[in-house]
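Minutes, project huddle
Topic: does the predicted pose make sense with adenosine-5'-triphosphate bound?
PN asked that the exact inputs be recorded in the minutes so nobody has to dig through chat later. Recorded below.
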Amino acid sequence: MRILVVANQKGGVGKTTTTLNLAASLAAAGRKILLLDIDSQANLTTGLGEKKRYEETTITDVLLDDASLESLIQRKPDFKMDVIPGSPDLISAELEMARVADPTSILKGKLSQLAHNYDYCLIDSPPSLGMLSVSALRAADKIIIPLQCEHFSIEGLEAMQRTIIEINKATGSNLKIDGILRTMFDQEKERAREISEKLEQSLSQQVFNTIIPRCDLLAEAPSEGKPIMYIDPNAKGTLAYFALAGEIIMRFEDKNVA
Ligand code: ATP
Ligand code: MG
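Predicted holo structure (tokens), as shared on screen:
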């Protein structure tokens, strides 16, 4: 199982939209998919038509080492994937996690128990840099950073780079940014085109060729509780996430990665 973490400390850049629609596209390409929502907003969860979890056991208990991930899996046969829902009580998780030893390593350990059941686990992370995001990053095989092509996005990217360096220093990991995804792209905007070109020039190895265009249906689909491909298979947002899935398969499924 490859663990793909979609992260950016900056909010509203398309993390959840990307996690959900990339996962659906990989599932449509025959990959076995687990989605994991570790954002207290639980947008990924509701975007799949699933309820946020308020029950006794939630993902927070997993992160505190009191429950298994397996017990929380919800099957979504219509979309050919499984999801572990997010929960509003993730807000308190970060505080409580301080009481366990090496808290940000727990998620990685729990995910390894599911490694044989899936080809990919995609994790949607919150727009902040606390223990939840660090837990996800530490578990990552591949880190994907979505960003909009605007001035503050470059600062957000630099902040993510610094964060990853800090995590590597503190934990001896060897994490890096594996994919930078341009989202909500508006071809008409000169500034967006300029920033996009600059990214291609300076970070060509990491930048995905696929660009996700601005597409109203991508923003509307979550209210129907479905990935966009199940609403309009020909929408430009659908086709863009299919292309991204193809690129991920080409780039990440080399034989050297378990
Ligand atoms: P947060 O940091 O709050 O978790 P996020 O990074 O997960 O946000 P999303 O929720 O995916 O970002 O997207 C932010 C908003 O932009 C949402 O309303 C979403 O529907 C919309 N959106 C995302 N991608 C696109 C797109 N390509 N075209 C149009 N709207 C989009
Ligand atoms: Mg989100």
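Observations noted during the meeting:
- The radius of gyration is 17 Å.
- The beta strands are 2-6, 33-37, 74-76, 81-84, 120-124, 142-148, 177-185, 207-213.
No decisions taken; revisit at the next huddle.
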